Structures are given as C-alpha cells and as structure tokens.
Amino acid sequence: MKKILKPTILIGLIISAIILIMLAPYHIYTLTLTEGVNTNFLKMKSSKRELLDGELVNLKTFSGIEGGEELFSLFHFSNFVSSFPINNPLYSMIPSIKIEQQRLKLGAVFQDSKGRELFSFMSERTTAFEMTEGEQKIFRLPYFKNYINKKTIEEVWRDIFSKKLSLPANTGKSFVESLSKLTEISYSDLVYNLYILYNRHLFFPKNVVKLQFDENKSIGIIELRPDQDDNKIEQIYFINNGFVYSFTIVTKIKSAASIAFRANVLRNIKFKLSSPDSAIALYAQYKNITYKNRIDQQGMIYLYLAWSHDLNNSNFMRVIIEFLERGKDNYKFLQPFYAYSLKKFGTNLSTDKTKILENAEQRLKRNMKVELDEEITQTAAEKNTKADTNFNTPEEKIKYNLDRAKERQKNNQDSSVENKGVLSIE
Q1: Is-above-0.85 flag for pTM?
Q2: Measured between alpha carbons, how far apart are the two ends of the chain, in Å?
Q3: pLDDT (tens digit per residue) in 192-206
Q4: How far is CA 407 from CA 391, 393, 400, in A?
Q5: Measured on CA atoms in the order 109, 112, 116, 119, is the torsion positive or negative?
Q6: DSSP string covering 346-362, please?
Q7: What are the two backbone dihedrals, phi and then psi, of residue 244, each rounded to the nearest 5 degrees?
Q8: How many CA atoms lie within 13 A of 98 on its CB side?
Q9: What does the alpha-carbon distance between residue 322 and residue 345 come to, in Å, rounded to a whole number?
Q10: 99 forms bridges with which residues in the sheet?
Q11: CA dihedral (385, 390, 393, 395) positive or negative
C-alpha cells in the first residue's frame, strides 16, 4: 500500500500544483479587477463593477413617440442626424450655446407646452481615438503586444464599450465545469482584457454607471451618475476616421413623454460629418417657409441648424436675432443668442434700441457710426443746396446729376461685390 500510496500522493500534489499554477493568472486577474495591483509589470487601481461589463443593444428597437412621429423630421445638426420636432406644437426647442475652454458647444433644451423641461442634448468636444499602453510593461511584452496589435480599430472600439471583463460565474457548476469554462479564456485574452480596462479608466468619466454598444450603427453609449434623481444622463459616441464625436443627452425618467422623446432621438440617430453645404441646404429650406414662420420658432430652428455647419458666419446670428425680434413672445428663444453674441462680439446684436446690450468698445463704435452717418447726410444736403445755386445753365445741372447717378451706380456695384455671399434678411 505504501508503494502505491506515495506515488499517488505525489501525482496528486503534482496535479494540484499544476492546477494552482494554471489558476494563478486568473486569481491575479480577479484581484486586479477588484482590488487593483501595483507591480513592476502592471499598476492599476481597483475598478467599479459598472466599468467591468458592457452590453450590446439595438437602438432600432426603441419605440418612438406614439402618434407624434409625423411632427418630427430628420435634420442634420453639427455632426449628427436625428429627428427634431420642427413642426410640433407640443414642444419648444430652446437653443443652448456654451463656450468652454475656447470651444463652442451647441445643443438644445426641449420643453412641453407648460414650459417643463423634457429632454436636452449638448455636443461635446471632438477627440482622437487613441488607446495607450501607458507605462504598463505587461502590454509591451512581445507576445502580448503582438496579440493586441492584431486587433482592428473597429474591434477595439466595440470592445471598449461592450466587452465583459468579469470572469464567468461558477454558481451551480461543478469544479470541473468551472475549470473548463475558465480555461476557455487564454492568458492573452486576460491581458487584452486588462488593456481594455486600463483604457476604460482613461477614456470614460469617473461617474460612469453603464456601458452599451450598438453594433449595427457602431455607436457607443455610456450612462453617467445623474445630478438629480429624476435625470438619466447619457453620452453618445461615434467614431469616424480615427476621431471620436460625442454628445450628451438628459432625459426625465419620471416623464413618459420624455422617455419616448429619448427613444425617438436614439432610434434615428446617425453620424454625418458637418459641411458648409448642409448650411446652404438648410438656409434654402428656411427661405421657402412663410414669413410668419420665419419670425417664429420654426425659422429659428432652421437657421440654428444651418449655423451649426458654418460657425464662422456671424451673419446667421444677425439674421436669427433680427427675425426673432420681429415676432412675438420670442424672448426665451432670443436669450441664448443674445448671451452668446454679447460674449463673442461685445454686443447682443439687437436691432431694438431698448434691448441693446454692449460693452464700452462696441458702444463707442456704434456712436461713431451714427455720428459719421449724420455728418455724411448733412454734408450731402449742404452740397446739394450749394450745387443747386451755382449752375450757370440748365445743361450744367443736368450733367452734374448724371455724373452723380453714375457714381451712385458704381458704389452700389462695389458694395454688391463686397457683400457677396452675405445672408439676405429680406
């Protein structure tokens, strides 16, 4: 028995040792996820459970606003296409314009007929999509580095939002079943998972609570911890030619209309790079609506969407403000444009003298222009009076008037050339 027992024990110990050695990387991996690790090869802090496992979703299955889809239309805003309630009497779209760290961010707040906020969105800054090894030596080991580099940018983009990094649960399974399931994950997969996790820490905000990905549209979605209990805050990510474009949406989860509004937007959302051609097309649509609609919310929306594609064209802002000032009860639409113009140009660009806000420099320029216009008018009047009394013959007066008419025609042509491409506000 002793001769049989000793070899058996030895074999058992060897097998146990092999199993422990095999399981050691998985144990270390689990500790890295839950407690963090600090070694020469890898330094990583512990990870929240919400950052570990992503999931796949299909945005096309989201249901829209029942009975109101016909009042929503697809429009191109900045780098996104989605549905806007441009003809919907139930919702008001209030533009949201922010300048943060010298970057312009555009969005909107949608209110119901009682002025309650239902839904909002805001564009975020564009960034390059760069996964990094940092100072982590484990990702630089030739075998693992080669494994990671074989991944395409599309695979990495999908995995950073959707990959489940937690090891399979062993609840209800035998030891052999659990071991078999565990060993389906190679050591290279473990290191790649840590690579994804490391970059999730760098790529996502600290207050993330959910990761999702739509494979059909290649859209990444993260949910953030809300600032208010009834808010659902999400960031939507697109990738195009190595650059990440994103925007943030806020939904009121206690409102059925708000939830349906969100579903309508996400179901129709897609990426489309901004282009000045889109501004031209939207402005053409604006020109085709009635004057009554131009001085109301509908005209404002067309111009706001168009301006999002031609941000350097200040004439859009002038036209928006002038036409909204011609309408009634438009202050809530005018306010964000006033605030932006005052910050950007030093004047709110109001055509109403009672509403003008401007800094000292702009006030001085305006007063100088008024004085110059008055001086030119007065000089012209004096010149005309003097000229009328100094003609020796009727022919001299006719020749003088013809010369003045030719001069005015030349000035008008020069002015037309200078203003070519300027938006008309007629």
Answers
A1: no
A2: 108
A3: 999 999 999 999 999
A4: 19, 22, 11
A5: negative
A6: SB---SSTTT--B-HHH
A7: -105, 125
A8: 13
A9: 16
A10: 104
A11: negative
d(CA 320, CA 284): 15
Up-side HSE of residue 281: CA atoms within 13 Å toward CB?
A: 9
Rounded to whole angstroms, how far apart are CA atoms 278 and 250? 26
- Tokens found for residue 42: 């890898």
Any idea what DSSP says for residue 328?
Answer: S
Query: For residues 48-80, b (16+ Cβ closer than 10 Å) or e, as one string?
Result: eebbbebeebebeebebbeebeebbeebbbbbb
Q: What is the pLDDT of residues 274-325, one digit of tens each?
A: 988 999 999 999 999 999 988 888 899 999 999 999 988 888 888 889 889 9
How far apart CA 35 and CA 44 sit, in angstroms, is 9
The residue among 91, 126, 128, 96 whose CA lies nearest residue 109 is 96
Q: Which residues pair with 243 in a beta bridge?
A: 128, 240
SS3 of residue 307 by DSSP: helix
Q: How many residues does the chain have?
A: 426
Token pair recorded at residue 366: 């305006």
Read off the DSSP letter of residue 140: G
Q: Are 109 and 117 in contact (CB under 8 A)?
A: yes
CA distances from 66 to 63, 141, 268 (A): 8, 55, 15
Helix (H, G, I), strand (E, B) or coil at 42: coil
Question: CA-CA distance, 380 to 391, in Å (whole number)?
Answer: 17
**What is the distance between the alpha carbons of residues 321 and 54, in angstroms, rounded to a whole number?**
45
